[in-house]
Design goal:
This protein is mainly β. It is 5% helix and 61% strand.
């Protein structure tokens, strides 16, 4: 599983999370006590800082000798983003520029080395 973003531990479970500036929210895709449905297959719950422990989680690794982070997966393919900071290197590898200084490409899991999660608390 590729995880990228904020995740919080609430009652010994890990949940995707987000904030709208004033509120801290955790999400699940199945009905659960205390969660309200916001869309089909999407449930959210307000929590406080005191209720949770959390981190920003990235799945990182190496692709063709350069550092990347995995953004999400679709079937057998993973969307990756170059994190090495050199546009010339990203371009030489055929990566697509999606924003100023941001380069991404689709690849397969087999092409990624050292794929692992890292958390910033």
């Amino acid at each position: 599983m590729i995880r990228e973003g904020m995740f919080l531990v609430w009652r010994d479970q890990i949940y995707p999370a987000n904030t709208d500036g004033a509120r801290l929210l955790i999400y699940t895709d199945a009905p659960a006590e205390g969660f309200r449905q916001t869309a089909p297959g999407r449930y959210e719950r307000d929590v406080t800082d005191e209720d949770v422990n959390g981190a920003y989680v990235s799945t990182i690794g190496t692709w063709r000798g350069v550092p990347v982070k995995a953004l999400y997966e679709h079937g057998d393919h993973i969307r990756i983003e170059y994190t090495g900071g050199r546009a010339d290197v990203a371009e030489s590898l055929g990566m697509e520029r999606v924003d100023k200084g941001v380069y991404q490409i689709w690849t397969t899991r087999q092409e990624l080395l050292d794929l692992h999660e890292t958390a910033l608390s």
